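== Sequence, C-alpha coordinates ==
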Amino acid sequence: MNRDKIIIQTSIVGILTNVVLAAFKAVVGVVSNSIAVILDAVNNLSDALSSIITIVGTKLAGKLPDKKHPLGYGRIEYLSAMMVSGIVLYAGITSLVESIKKIIYPEVPDYSMTSLVIIAVAVVVKVVLGKYVKAQGKKANSGALVASGSDALSDAILSASVLVSAIVFILTGYSLEAYVGVIISGFIIKAGIEMMVETLNDILGTRADRELTNKIKHLIADEPEVRGAYDLIMYNYGPDKYYASVHIEVPDTMSAKEIRSLTRRIEPKIYEKTGVVLAAVGIYAYNTKNDEAMKIEKDVKKCIMQHKWALQVHGFYLDIQAKVMHFDVVLSFGIKPEEGIKILLEELHNAYPQYKFEIMPDVDVSTTE
Protein backbone atom coordinates (compact mmCIF):
# COMPACT_ATOMS: atom_id res chain seq x y z
CA MET A 1 0.00 0.00 0.00
CA ASN A 2 2.85 2.38 0.80
CA ARG A 3 4.36 1.65 -2.62
CA ASP A 4 1.05 2.38 -4.36
CA LYS A 5 0.66 5.61 -2.37
CA ILE A 6 4.13 6.82 -3.46
CA ILE A 7 3.41 6.01 -7.13
CA ILE A 8 0.01 7.72 -7.13
CA GLN A 9 1.14 10.85 -5.28
CA THR A 10 4.22 11.23 -7.48
CA SER A 11 2.13 10.71 -10.63
CA ILE A 12 -0.35 13.39 -9.51
CA VAL A 13 2.53 15.85 -9.04
CA GLY A 14 3.72 14.94 -12.55
CA ILE A 15 0.24 15.42 -14.05
CA LEU A 16 -0.30 18.85 -12.52
CA THR A 17 3.19 20.05 -13.45
CA ASN A 18 3.02 18.82 -17.04
CA VAL A 19 -0.48 20.23 -17.62
CA VAL A 20 0.63 23.68 -16.41
CA LEU A 21 3.80 23.55 -18.52
CA ALA A 22 1.85 22.36 -21.57
CA ALA A 23 -0.64 25.22 -21.22
CA PHE A 24 2.05 27.90 -20.99
CA LYS A 25 4.10 26.39 -23.83
CA ALA A 26 1.04 26.04 -26.06
CA VAL A 27 0.23 29.73 -25.61
CA VAL A 28 3.86 30.69 -26.27
CA GLY A 29 4.00 28.42 -29.32
CA VAL A 30 0.83 29.81 -30.88
CA VAL A 31 1.69 33.46 -30.14
CA SER A 32 5.28 33.16 -31.39
CA ASN A 33 4.33 30.84 -34.29
CA SER A 34 6.91 28.28 -33.07
CA ILE A 35 6.43 24.64 -34.07
CA ALA A 36 9.22 23.56 -31.70
CA VAL A 37 7.49 25.09 -28.68
CA ILE A 38 4.12 23.64 -29.70
CA LEU A 39 5.64 20.16 -30.04
CA ASP A 40 7.30 20.62 -26.65
CA ALA A 41 3.83 21.36 -25.23
CA VAL A 42 2.43 18.22 -26.87
CA ASN A 43 5.26 16.24 -25.29
CA ASN A 44 4.26 17.58 -21.86
CA LEU A 45 0.65 16.57 -22.47
CA SER A 46 1.72 13.05 -23.42
CA ASP A 47 3.71 12.91 -20.17
CA ALA A 48 0.60 13.93 -18.21
CA LEU A 49 -1.48 11.28 -19.97
CA SER A 50 1.21 8.71 -19.21
CA SER A 51 1.01 9.58 -15.52
CA ILE A 52 -2.78 9.15 -15.57
CA ILE A 53 -2.43 5.69 -17.09
CA THR A 54 0.25 4.85 -14.49
CA ILE A 55 -2.20 5.75 -11.70
CA VAL A 56 -5.00 3.67 -13.23
CA GLY A 57 -2.65 0.73 -13.77
CA THR A 58 -1.37 0.92 -10.19
CA LYS A 59 -4.90 0.98 -8.76
CA LEU A 60 -6.00 -1.99 -10.87
CA ALA A 61 -2.80 -3.92 -10.10
CA GLY A 62 -3.49 -3.47 -6.38
CA LYS A 63 -6.78 -5.37 -6.54
CA LEU A 64 -6.95 -8.34 -4.17
CA PRO A 65 -6.64 -11.88 -5.61
CA ASP A 66 -9.89 -13.63 -6.47
CA LYS A 67 -11.08 -16.97 -7.79
CA LYS A 68 -10.37 -16.01 -11.40
CA HIS A 69 -6.94 -14.48 -10.68
CA PRO A 70 -5.62 -16.25 -7.55
CA LEU A 71 -2.17 -14.65 -7.84
CA GLY A 72 -3.47 -11.11 -8.10
CA TYR A 73 -3.51 -8.43 -10.78
CA GLY A 74 0.09 -7.17 -10.52
CA ARG A 75 0.89 -7.74 -14.18
CA ILE A 76 -1.62 -5.04 -15.16
CA GLU A 77 1.20 -2.56 -14.46
CA TYR A 78 3.05 -4.01 -17.43
CA LEU A 79 0.00 -3.55 -19.68
CA SER A 80 -0.42 0.06 -18.53
CA ALA A 81 3.28 0.66 -19.23
CA MET A 82 2.76 -0.74 -22.73
CA MET A 83 -0.08 1.74 -23.28
CA VAL A 84 2.13 4.59 -22.08
CA SER A 85 4.90 3.59 -24.48
CA GLY A 86 2.37 3.47 -27.32
CA ILE A 87 1.19 7.00 -26.52
CA VAL A 88 4.76 8.30 -26.37
CA LEU A 89 5.60 6.61 -29.68
CA TYR A 90 2.49 8.04 -31.36
CA ALA A 91 3.28 11.53 -30.07
CA GLY A 92 6.82 11.25 -31.43
CA ILE A 93 5.72 10.11 -34.89
CA THR A 94 3.05 12.84 -35.09
CA SER A 95 5.60 15.46 -34.03
CA LEU A 96 8.05 14.25 -36.67
CA VAL A 97 5.45 14.54 -39.43
CA GLU A 98 4.53 18.09 -38.37
CA SER A 99 8.20 19.13 -38.15
CA ILE A 100 8.93 17.85 -41.65
CA LYS A 101 5.94 19.81 -42.95
CA LYS A 102 7.41 22.95 -41.39
CA ILE A 103 10.75 22.29 -43.08
CA ILE A 104 9.00 22.04 -46.46
CA TYR A 105 6.69 25.00 -45.77
CA PRO A 106 8.65 27.20 -43.33
CA GLU A 107 7.06 29.93 -41.18
CA VAL A 108 8.96 32.72 -39.42
CA PRO A 109 8.61 32.66 -35.61
CA ASP A 110 8.25 35.78 -33.47
CA TYR A 111 9.61 35.48 -29.93
CA SER A 112 9.11 37.90 -27.05
CA MET A 113 11.13 38.21 -23.86
CA THR A 114 8.17 36.70 -21.95
CA SER A 115 8.30 33.63 -24.20
CA LEU A 116 11.99 33.12 -23.51
CA VAL A 117 11.48 33.45 -19.75
CA ILE A 118 8.64 30.88 -19.78
CA ILE A 119 10.74 28.38 -21.75
CA ALA A 120 13.72 28.91 -19.40
CA VAL A 121 11.53 28.36 -16.33
CA ALA A 122 10.13 25.21 -17.96
CA VAL A 123 13.66 23.81 -18.31
CA VAL A 124 14.35 24.31 -14.59
CA VAL A 125 10.97 22.85 -13.60
CA LYS A 126 11.55 19.75 -15.74
CA VAL A 127 14.98 19.14 -14.19
CA VAL A 128 13.54 19.37 -10.66
CA LEU A 129 10.54 17.19 -11.60
CA GLY A 130 12.74 14.59 -13.30
CA LYS A 131 15.05 14.18 -10.30
CA TYR A 132 12.09 13.99 -7.90
CA VAL A 133 10.13 11.42 -9.91
CA LYS A 134 13.23 9.28 -10.52
CA ALA A 135 14.11 9.27 -6.81
CA GLN A 136 10.54 8.32 -5.87
CA GLY A 137 10.57 5.58 -8.52
CA LYS A 138 13.70 4.01 -7.02
CA LYS A 139 12.19 4.30 -3.54
CA ALA A 140 9.01 2.48 -4.65
CA ASN A 141 10.81 0.10 -7.04
CA SER A 142 8.59 1.39 -9.85
CA GLY A 143 10.03 1.04 -13.33
CA ALA A 144 7.29 3.32 -14.68
CA LEU A 145 8.26 6.18 -12.35
CA VAL A 146 12.00 5.75 -12.98
CA ALA A 147 11.31 5.86 -16.73
CA SER A 148 9.10 8.94 -16.28
CA GLY A 149 11.84 10.66 -14.29
CA SER A 150 14.44 9.91 -16.95
CA ASP A 151 11.99 11.10 -19.62
CA ALA A 152 11.48 14.39 -17.74
CA LEU A 153 15.23 14.98 -17.62
CA SER A 154 15.41 14.32 -21.36
CA ASP A 155 12.53 16.76 -21.85
CA ALA A 156 14.55 19.40 -20.00
CA ILE A 157 17.33 18.98 -22.55
CA LEU A 158 14.83 19.24 -25.39
CA SER A 159 13.27 22.39 -23.91
CA ALA A 160 16.75 23.84 -23.54
CA SER A 161 17.36 23.18 -27.25
CA VAL A 162 14.15 25.06 -28.06
CA LEU A 163 15.40 27.97 -25.96
CA VAL A 164 18.75 27.94 -27.75
CA SER A 165 17.09 27.92 -31.17
CA ALA A 166 14.94 30.89 -30.13
CA ILE A 167 18.00 32.85 -28.99
CA VAL A 168 19.82 31.95 -32.22
CA PHE A 169 16.86 33.27 -34.24
CA ILE A 170 16.74 36.53 -32.29
CA LEU A 171 20.50 37.11 -32.67
CA THR A 172 21.03 35.91 -36.24
CA GLY A 173 17.64 35.71 -37.95
CA TYR A 174 18.16 32.03 -38.79
CA SER A 175 15.16 29.86 -37.90
CA LEU A 176 16.05 26.40 -36.61
CA GLU A 177 12.50 25.71 -35.38
CA ALA A 178 11.52 22.87 -37.67
CA TYR A 179 14.91 21.17 -37.38
CA VAL A 180 14.79 21.33 -33.59
CA GLY A 181 11.28 19.85 -33.88
CA VAL A 182 12.73 16.89 -35.81
CA ILE A 183 15.35 16.37 -33.07
CA ILE A 184 12.68 16.53 -30.36
CA SER A 185 10.56 14.02 -32.31
CA GLY A 186 13.53 11.69 -32.60
CA PHE A 187 14.07 11.74 -28.84
CA ILE A 188 10.36 11.10 -28.19
CA ILE A 189 10.28 8.18 -30.65
CA LYS A 190 13.45 6.72 -29.12
CA ALA A 191 11.95 6.97 -25.61
CA GLY A 192 8.74 5.28 -26.78
CA ILE A 193 10.59 2.39 -28.42
CA GLU A 194 12.83 1.86 -25.37
CA MET A 195 9.82 1.85 -23.03
CA MET A 196 8.01 -0.63 -25.28
CA VAL A 197 11.00 -2.99 -25.48
CA GLU A 198 11.50 -2.87 -21.71
CA THR A 199 7.83 -3.62 -21.06
CA LEU A 200 7.83 -6.46 -23.59
CA ASN A 201 10.81 -7.96 -21.78
CA ASP A 202 8.88 -7.82 -18.50
CA ILE A 203 5.88 -9.54 -20.10
CA LEU A 204 7.97 -12.21 -21.86
CA GLY A 205 10.09 -12.84 -18.75
CA THR A 206 13.74 -12.02 -18.20
CA ARG A 207 16.58 -13.51 -16.19
CA ALA A 208 16.05 -12.97 -12.49
CA ASP A 209 18.22 -10.46 -10.69
CA ARG A 210 21.58 -12.08 -9.90
CA GLU A 211 21.87 -10.48 -6.47
CA LEU A 212 18.42 -11.73 -5.45
CA THR A 213 18.89 -15.30 -6.73
CA ASN A 214 22.31 -15.60 -5.10
CA LYS A 215 20.88 -14.34 -1.82
CA ILE A 216 18.11 -16.94 -1.89
CA LYS A 217 20.56 -19.74 -2.69
CA HIS A 218 22.92 -18.67 0.09
CA LEU A 219 20.09 -18.44 2.62
CA ILE A 220 19.00 -21.98 1.76
CA ALA A 221 22.54 -23.37 1.73
CA ASP A 222 23.13 -21.90 5.21
CA GLU A 223 20.91 -24.67 6.61
CA PRO A 224 23.24 -27.37 8.01
CA GLU A 225 21.47 -30.23 6.20
CA VAL A 226 21.63 -28.56 2.76
CA ARG A 227 24.66 -29.09 0.52
CA GLY A 228 23.41 -26.78 -2.21
CA ALA A 229 20.41 -25.05 -3.81
CA TYR A 230 19.79 -25.43 -7.56
CA ASP A 231 17.24 -24.96 -10.36
CA LEU A 232 15.92 -21.74 -8.84
CA ILE A 233 13.13 -20.44 -11.06
CA MET A 234 11.44 -17.09 -10.38
CA TYR A 235 7.85 -16.40 -11.43
CA ASN A 236 6.96 -12.71 -11.67
CA TYR A 237 3.38 -11.56 -11.11
CA GLY A 238 4.03 -7.84 -11.11
CA PRO A 239 6.62 -5.51 -9.55
CA ASP A 240 7.88 -6.94 -6.24
CA LYS A 241 5.59 -9.98 -6.58
CA TYR A 242 7.70 -13.10 -6.97
CA TYR A 243 7.00 -16.79 -6.53
CA ALA A 244 9.82 -19.32 -6.85
CA SER A 245 10.66 -23.01 -6.98
CA VAL A 246 14.00 -24.58 -6.08
CA HIS A 247 15.75 -27.94 -5.62
CA ILE A 248 17.85 -28.56 -2.53
CA GLU A 249 20.52 -31.23 -2.12
CA VAL A 250 20.35 -33.20 1.14
CA PRO A 251 21.92 -36.42 2.49
CA ASP A 252 20.30 -39.71 1.41
CA THR A 253 19.93 -40.58 5.09
CA MET A 254 17.27 -37.95 5.81
CA SER A 255 13.72 -39.11 6.48
CA ALA A 256 10.57 -37.57 5.03
CA LYS A 257 9.79 -36.13 8.47
CA GLU A 258 13.20 -34.44 8.65
CA ILE A 259 12.87 -33.06 5.12
CA ARG A 260 9.43 -31.67 5.93
CA SER A 261 10.83 -29.91 9.00
CA LEU A 262 13.67 -28.49 6.89
CA THR A 263 11.42 -27.08 4.14
CA ARG A 264 9.09 -25.58 6.76
CA ARG A 265 12.07 -23.62 8.08
CA ILE A 266 13.30 -22.54 4.67
CA GLU A 267 10.03 -21.20 3.22
CA PRO A 268 9.24 -18.51 5.86
CA LYS A 269 12.94 -17.63 6.10
CA ILE A 270 13.13 -16.82 2.37
CA TYR A 271 9.94 -14.76 2.48
CA GLU A 272 11.08 -12.80 5.51
CA LYS A 273 14.53 -12.02 4.07
CA THR A 274 13.61 -11.42 0.41
CA GLY A 275 9.83 -11.10 0.02
CA VAL A 276 9.84 -14.07 -2.39
CA VAL A 277 7.22 -16.79 -1.87
CA LEU A 278 8.93 -20.18 -2.14
CA ALA A 279 6.07 -22.13 -3.66
CA ALA A 280 7.84 -25.46 -4.23
CA VAL A 281 10.94 -27.19 -2.88
CA GLY A 282 12.23 -30.25 -4.74
CA ILE A 283 14.72 -32.71 -3.27
CA TYR A 284 18.01 -34.12 -4.54
CA ALA A 285 19.68 -36.81 -2.44
CA TYR A 286 23.44 -37.31 -2.48
CA ASN A 287 25.41 -40.43 -1.56
CA THR A 288 26.79 -40.55 1.99
CA LYS A 289 27.36 -44.27 2.67
CA ASN A 290 29.56 -45.28 -0.26
CA ASP A 291 33.11 -44.01 -0.83
CA GLU A 292 33.17 -45.36 -4.38
CA ALA A 293 30.04 -43.35 -5.27
CA MET A 294 31.58 -40.15 -3.95
CA LYS A 295 34.79 -40.76 -5.94
CA ILE A 296 32.83 -41.43 -9.13
CA GLU A 297 30.79 -38.27 -8.57
CA LYS A 298 33.98 -36.22 -8.36
CA ASP A 299 35.41 -37.78 -11.54
CA VAL A 300 32.16 -37.41 -13.50
CA LYS A 301 31.85 -33.73 -12.59
CA LYS A 302 35.48 -33.13 -13.59
CA CYS A 303 34.88 -34.81 -16.96
CA ILE A 304 31.74 -32.79 -17.68
CA MET A 305 33.09 -29.43 -16.58
CA GLN A 306 35.90 -29.64 -19.13
CA HIS A 307 33.33 -28.47 -21.66
CA LYS A 308 32.86 -24.68 -21.75
CA TRP A 309 29.14 -25.05 -22.45
CA ALA A 310 28.62 -27.14 -19.29
CA LEU A 311 28.02 -24.55 -16.55
CA GLN A 312 27.18 -26.74 -13.58
CA VAL A 313 26.54 -30.33 -12.48
CA HIS A 314 24.21 -31.03 -9.55
CA GLY A 315 21.74 -33.54 -8.17
CA PHE A 316 24.23 -36.38 -8.61
CA TYR A 317 23.17 -39.74 -7.18
CA LEU A 318 24.66 -43.13 -7.89
CA ASP A 319 22.46 -46.23 -7.46
CA ILE A 320 25.11 -48.90 -6.94
CA GLN A 321 22.72 -51.86 -7.11
CA ALA A 322 20.85 -50.73 -10.23
CA LYS A 323 24.09 -49.41 -11.80
CA VAL A 324 22.49 -46.08 -12.71
CA MET A 325 23.84 -42.52 -12.37
CA HIS A 326 21.37 -39.64 -12.03
CA PHE A 327 22.36 -35.97 -12.35
CA ASP A 328 21.46 -32.62 -13.95
CA VAL A 329 23.69 -30.48 -16.16
CA VAL A 330 23.16 -26.76 -16.64
CA LEU A 331 23.93 -25.98 -20.29
CA SER A 332 24.76 -22.60 -21.77
CA PHE A 333 22.68 -21.16 -24.60
CA GLY A 334 25.63 -21.81 -26.92
CA ILE A 335 24.69 -25.46 -27.46
CA LYS A 336 21.47 -27.35 -28.14
CA PRO A 337 20.45 -29.51 -25.12
CA GLU A 338 20.15 -32.71 -27.16
CA GLU A 339 23.57 -32.12 -28.72
CA GLY A 340 25.24 -31.52 -25.35
CA ILE A 341 23.63 -34.58 -23.75
CA LYS A 342 24.67 -36.76 -26.70
CA ILE A 343 28.32 -35.70 -26.30
CA LEU A 344 28.27 -36.37 -22.54
CA LEU A 345 26.61 -39.77 -22.92
CA GLU A 346 29.24 -40.90 -25.41
CA GLU A 347 32.10 -39.82 -23.13
CA LEU A 348 30.62 -41.28 -19.95
CA HIS A 349 29.63 -44.58 -21.57
CA ASN A 350 33.25 -45.02 -22.63
CA ALA A 351 34.48 -44.21 -19.12
CA TYR A 352 31.83 -46.24 -17.25
CA PRO A 353 30.50 -48.92 -19.63
CA GLN A 354 28.88 -50.85 -16.77
CA TYR A 355 26.57 -47.95 -15.84
CA LYS A 356 23.43 -46.43 -17.28
CA PHE A 357 22.96 -42.65 -17.23
CA GLU A 358 19.92 -40.49 -16.62
CA ILE A 359 21.01 -36.96 -17.45
CA MET A 360 18.58 -34.04 -17.18
CA PRO A 361 19.56 -30.89 -19.14
CA ASP A 362 18.80 -27.67 -17.26
CA VAL A 363 18.37 -24.19 -18.73
CA ASP A 364 20.55 -21.42 -17.38
CA VAL A 365 17.54 -19.49 -15.99
CA SER A 366 19.30 -18.02 -12.97
CA THR A 367 22.86 -16.79 -13.33
CA THR A 368 25.30 -19.35 -12.03
CA GLU A 369 28.06 -18.17 -9.74
Remarks:
- The chain has a mean pLDDT of 86.
- The chain has three domains: 2-204, 219-283, 287-369.
